[in-house]
Amino acid sequence: MNEALPDDFDVIIIGTGLPAAVVSGALSRVDKKVLHLDRNDYYGGSWSSFNIKSVETFLQNPYDSAEYLNKDGEETSNIEVSEDEEFVPILQNKNFITKAEYSCYLKRSEKNEEPAQSSSPCVDTCQSDVVEQSCASKPDDSLKSGETPISEEVQKREESPKVENCNDPATQGDGDSVEKEKELTQELDKAKTKEKVDVSEVVKPRFPLSEDFYKQWRHYNLDLSPKVMFSRGLLVELLIQSNVSRYLEFRNVTRTLTFLDGSKELQRVPCSRADVFSSKFVSVVEKRILMRLFTLCANYKDHEQEYQNFREKTFIEFLASRRLSLKAQHFVLYSIAMVSETTSTLDGLAATHKFLHSLGRYGNSAFLWPSYGVGEIPQAFCRFSAVFGGTFCLRRYAVGFIKDKTTGRCTAIVDNTGQKIRCGTLILDDLNLPHGANTTSTSSVDRAIYVIDSTVSKSDAEQEVSLVTIPPMCDNPAVRLIEAGPLCCVCPKNNYYCTKKNCEKQPKKLPFKKNVKNCLNLDETNIKPEVGGEDSQSRKPVILWSCHFTMTDTNTDNSTLPPNVITLQGPRMDLGFDRAMNEAREVFLRICPGEDFLPRAPDPEEIVFDEGYNTENNDTISPTPEDGGGDYVEEEEEDLNEPAAE
Amino acid sequence: GIIATMTEQRKEYLFKVLVIGELGVGKTSVIKRYVHQIFSQHYRATIGVDFALKVVHWDGETLIRLQLWDIAGQERFGNMTRVYYREAVGAFIVFDATRASTFEAVNKWKNDLDNKVTLPDGRNIPTVLLGNKIDQMRGGLLSNKQQMDNYCDEKGFVAWFETSAKANINIDEAAKYLIDKILDNERSYSRNLPDPEALELNKDDDEKSGCCR
Description:
Chain A: This is Rab proteins geranylgeranyltransferase component A. Chain A has about 650 residues and is α+β, with helices and mostly antiparallel strands.
């Protein structure tokens, strides 16, 4: 696809991460001429979701090997610029994924051990064989009644309670734990080899063979940046307002779980009025105290007197003053407000308010989860942008931009085919860094994705998505985990999948992986075939596949760039999408001051035509009886779709 | 993609069908001809429209709502999002019978399609190959019918048609053929209804009694 692109646009956007996609959609919607490029052959950048095959490929090499310029951006001699112009290279952000690794803990079948794993047979079998595993098409009932373990996706995120303060780019000082992990992995490998021998005669293995697991590669949608949507967050409002929601499906986050001090079991956090009243973990007295707190938080701005004395103090001190038990403080702090012990009272109240405000809009929940994963969201906005005229091209990117020395403004980009394309504004997402601009690593997150074979916490009702918060324990940073079930179209039916993330504030402590595994009783060494009959209620979830990586957010200092070059931030560690949506709106308004940000798009159903129909010669196929809606199809002389033969 | 509603004897289906092919092969013309019974040499890519909707009274008992998803004007470099492919149950791949290069690209489009979407049972979605602009043909690409049949067998197309959106040749026939194949698939496995609990954002629970359930 090396066709020449048109060579003049209002706005050129490089990278299809979420804020970039939202800005793209918003600009196209108000008739700006937008060119949107991405160096990858997939949409979403650091917001992407991958299937098992593509995530393994990605983790092996997260970066494009073909770089147009050398690392220092020096090799610019072949770019023709005039004397009053300067060429500024744009480099790929190669710091964004580090320490990537993945493992499948499942055994291969004996007979297939010799021939190396080949991917193409997998595809064939997948297409003919795996019907029953498709989570997308499974009706609810079969999941509830099924004897097979119910599959879920677990997205687990570990993060420091001091997210905002976390400035260490967690690259140094971690050698120890990496080494330990390696040892651990090697031991596991040995263990696996041993087991293979022991086990060959067992008839019905509890776990699938590795090749059967990979046959279902297509059914996974694993997020690089797992997040949930606050039901009243900016993203939800924007999706509704713009009608982009028609491209997406959602699931409820049906429960919030946490560990209480000293407890080995995950417990359900009472969030709503109904939860509080039915909770077994909260005494009658506490129920009243909690309800009063919730009532206050829902309207905290009108009741300043209630927290007047705590303005300078921490939220946890405020909670203690409300005579909340330690347990209840814990629920509120880590699982409802999702803040840390150092958070101020006002911030804590605001966070609690935000949670409570979102609660109950869609079911008994404050959060929604996008089916097929977070990666669907940027794609929905990109489709929206394309439908409104945006030009999209993947595997195409800017190797640099041209800056007018007199005005200091960017006048054009040079793409990787060497084409010069003029633009009024240039927007770069977090994976494209202008050479010479000041960049800082703002935060660093360890993330993991686990495919596990059963939920982290059994319950009577089928859970769609669970949000698990693990408070900081023994100096280990807090962990946040999202578990999404098979209804969420992120994994096939017989597996669980989880990702976790962690801000590695204290790299010398217990390795992140081990910490989380211990907490959740996850253990890949449990993978050994067993002949049925086990009490599926009591057994621990087992990791079938896992990956770990560190994601570093890079912040570019815009002040060193031309005024019409705008850089966007990466996903960061926020649980929700508000920051990204705010950023997108600000960028849009900077380019189009006073314009409507993502006004409602018409539904396709509103654009049905019925003029010109006639039915005379058609018995079986006859025209629609429906009335036509608005006429959004413009007829113009310009003829993009029917050019003369090339 | 498919909502099959049974009301007494009457069946209603919603089918998402993709229309794919190189720039300028007449995808939009084919859709317009089929859906609106019009052909115009002068229109630009439709702006703000995801798909054209055609309601087909298939037989006395079956009503089909056919969504024809064009490549959004500007995804023309072949980089459609998953949103475009998701839950499609059939496709047309269109080439310009007067331009060999557009036929050469057919294979690429077919591979791409098969990679991005499958039926719930894992099979490829039924795809009909359309050689469009047949009214402009002199001599032409499609003279060897046997070769085209073999090509379709080999590449996994369910059929091919010579069409002209301009002269209204074979458009209805091709659509009818594809719908027939889609209906066959519907009958060959019991379709799961879309999960009733999938959320629509525009319908929130505000009006209800809130969090008690």
